[in-house]
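Re: the 159-residue chain
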Amino acid sequence: MQFSGKYIIDAPRQTVWEALNDEEILQKTIFGCQKITWISNSQLEIEVLVNLGVMKKSFIGYLELEDVKEAQKYTLKGKGRGGILGKVHASADIELKDHLLDGDKSGTYLEFVAQGGGSGTIMNLGKAIIGSSAQKIIDNFFERFAKAMGVEIVVFEDK
């Protein structure tokens, strides 16, 4: 599965960068996040509770930042395992650029392209459940991200 998004965030690029790397903000932003902790300069350990109605399961995994250019871009790679539900993996290229807002105020243009997949029960369910609503899930992530930062966000829809 492939996903993408474009957003304008009402905050300077450096502030957005710092928020993207802040454990507290990420825990508030990632739906179901039980724990997220930096374990090295480029790797986070994460635990996310997935609720599929009759089944709740924790996925435990890692997020790793690669090709980092401070306050500009990075590739985020993640892997997780959820026992009987299977394994998941994803990769996202995230890029930040300055964006001039009304009144010469500095904002940030954020663009990302992500690919994901997995194996086991989660993929069988995922294509049916996540596939049809993936963009909404991702847009909700960035809306919660902006809310956790205390700023406004604009979501662009490609026509």
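Residues 2-156 form a domain with the Alpha-D-Glucose-1,6-Bisphosphate; Chain A, domain 4 fold (CATH 3.30.530.20).
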